[in-house]
């Protein structure tokens, strides 16, 4: 399984593209939801109250003639990452 730091897809901006950014508290299951939406284990997901995702990661899937573009983000209120670092990561995700 690839970690989110290894997955980097680019949004194309085409009309049939749906973009999703997964936001939420640490441990809420953002990576697991991303894996479910994409239909594959592309984001590292574990039961861990300290958070697994440290950097934004993105991946895509074609579904019903649409391109799903999903961005997994670090959790808000993660005690191991500063709020400024989280905001910067989210701002840089494309």
Automatic annotation (TrEMBL):
Pfam families: AIG1
Signal peptide region: none
InterPro entries: G_AIG1, GIMA/IAN/Toc, P-loop_NTPase
Domain AIG1-type G: 15-94
Keyword Ribosomal protein: no
Highest taxon of source: Eukaryota
Keyword terms of this UniProt record: GTP-binding, Nucleotide-binding
Similarity comment: Belongs to the TRAFAC class TrmE-Era-EngA-EngB-Septin-like GTPase superfamily. AIG1/Toc34/Toc159-like paraseptin GTPase family. IAN subfamily.
Protein name: AIG1-type G domain-containing protein
Organism: Rotaria sordida
């Amino acid at each position: 399984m690839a970690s989110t730091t290894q997955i980097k897809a680019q949004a194309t901006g085409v009309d049939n593209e749906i973009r999703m950014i997964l936001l939420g508290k640490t441990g809420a299951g953002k990576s697991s939801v991303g894996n479910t939406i994409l239909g594959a284990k592309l984001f590292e997901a574990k039961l861990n109250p300290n958070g697994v995702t440290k950097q934004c990661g993105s991946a895509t899937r074609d579904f019903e003639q649409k391109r799903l573009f999903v961005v997994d983000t670090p959790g808000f209120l993660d005690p191991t990452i500063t709020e400024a670092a989280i905001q910067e990561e989210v701002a840089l995700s494309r």
